[in-house]
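User: Can you fold this complex?
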Amino acid sequence: MVKCSSNQLDRTFAALADPTRRSLLQHLSRGDRCVTELAKPHSMSLPAISKHLRILENAGLIRRKRRGRVHSLNLEAAPMRQASQWIEEYRRFWEGSLDRLDEYLKQLQAKEKPHDHPQ
Amino acid sequence: MTTPNNTPAAACGGREFVITRLLAAPCALVYQAWTDPRQMVQWWSPQGVACRSVTAEARVGGTYRIHMTSERGDHIAIGAYRELIPNRRLQFTWQWEHYPMPDSVVTVEFEDLGKTTRLTLTHSGLPVAEDAPDHPWGWTSALDKFAGLMEQNLIKQS
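Assistant: Here's the predicted assembly.
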């Protein structure tokens, strides 16, 4: 398993908390992009996009490559996976429990039905 | 990239996630199932994990202890109630006994829709562990769908 410090995970979660940044990550998941390409669909200014990208970079979620004047960005999947695994464990716990709650409530009501219409 | 409806991107909003369920039972019944230990023991734990016993003192400041077992051993969830508004809202801290971590917080909201109830569960302040050890349930092999899709895209590129 990839070792990951709690600071790293904190940064990853903070970076993922913003919908614009999640959308940027989705774009980057399709391939490397330069900053202007990323800014276009978001109709945001370059400085605004750059700020988001810096947060993603500091969180270790993306990597910046410089080709002359062009900065191209690509995705680093490992921290993302690490962070989402923890969320996923708990999500599954509750989804599974709620499945059983749903079943339990159905059984409970089926049992109680005869008493719904007292003579 | 196509995004599934229950996209973990939305669920990953920081160190918390939200689950919404429509339950085919009146609100009061659902609330009871969440606060009466005799009922909690009937459903509290996912498939493959058995809920052995539940003690719960459902009042603000009261504590609960939920003893579950899986093939990996005992898992005991403990915490204290922070807020209880009958048939509307429940909030409690969540921690694993023998697995020291900061408290996380579970908030359950019940919306009365007559014969059905909309339940919204938010688990926030999720623990961040040094070196991210295995979660007590040991499900860490399962990748998050979002991260999984990203990986697939990365593989396609290379």
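Chain B touches chain A through 54 residues (CB under 8 Å). Chain B is about 20% helix and 40% strand.
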